[in-house]
Amino acid sequence: MGAAARLKVIAPLADAFARRVSYLRVSITDRCNYRCTYCMPEEGVALVPRPEVLTLEEVARIVGLLARVGVRRVRLTGGEPTVRHGLIDLIERLHALDLDDLALSTNGHTLAEIAPLLRRAGLTRLNVSVDSLDPEKFKQITRRGDFARVQAGVEAARDAGFRATKINAVALAGWNDDELPAIAAWAWERDAIPRFIEWMPMGGGSLFAPGGFLPAAQIRARLAAVFGPLLPDDGAGLPGVGPARYLRLASDETRRVGVISAVTEPFCDTCNRVRLSSTGQLHTCLARDETIDLRAPLRGGLSDEEILACVREGVAGKAEGHAFQPTGCGGPKKHMVSIGG
Predict the structure, then answer these.
(1) How does pLDDT run across 113-169, given as a tens digit for each residue?
(2) Cα-Cα end-to-end distance for the chain
(3) By CB neighbour count within 10 A (0-12 exposed, 13-18 middle, 19+ buried), where does 203 fall?
(4) In this structure, which CATH number among 1.20.120.80, 3.20.20.70, 3.30.2350.10, 2.30.30.140 belongs to the domain 3-338?
């Protein structure tokens, strides 16, 4: 019997709109070894002092508590989570909770070295960011990335036993929009699933360039122009189906692609997720700045029941939706790097 099965299961976590929370994204650091143009300023952002960052023990405690109220899927994010010392130990701790899904989002820079370690520790799945196949363009978008390293990392992950790795690309008009079909084909050749993401106006829109925004309809059109008709797909059989809406090629139903359209085709009515920042702030919506502070009650000696009461109160106030606009308006002040997407 798994550790989670021995936990006392209590009433599932839900908001005022009867949306049950079953998915938790955990940012374990605000630090990153890349400076992607759509994610953070070139000079970086003000880093959180280390004493304010949750310890791995604190992270594991919060995840364990949320598992008691219905969270079955957990994704570790950053910043870049692989730069956090103790990552492997944390994965082993969370694996012991017997979750349905334990995943990691990464830029893939160190994946070639650590993929086997991640797999042995109990990680279920990977998402890897690949915004361009052109080494020079890749470096321009990431400001310091190395495409060859990332490609080697994706292949090492496959060799280590990871299946259905998701390749995430933020679709940017004038940057990589001409590469979307090539990125999809590159992912399929490596037994991975390509997903294209609309650029979101985070950071108060300070990094957002409306001329670079590519709506989901145009993403689909660029793919269909090369691959032919795209048919709706329910994602059956894909692990960890989340906010992406999936399509399959009419010419080859084994080839599927996801589109995440938070701006032009929002999916707020089916939102089942919350996010925990590296400083212990629970975000009930990526597109809003309101948070519930869990670090203070955690470090103040509150009981598990009292901490869960804080969580329930915060989730009860989760907004019905958000106001992202293709013009760059309607987003939160927080940068994507601080919450991990």
Answers:
(1) 999 999 999 999 999 999 999 999 999 999 999 999 999 999 999 999 999 999 999
(2) 33
(3) buried
(4) 3.20.20.70
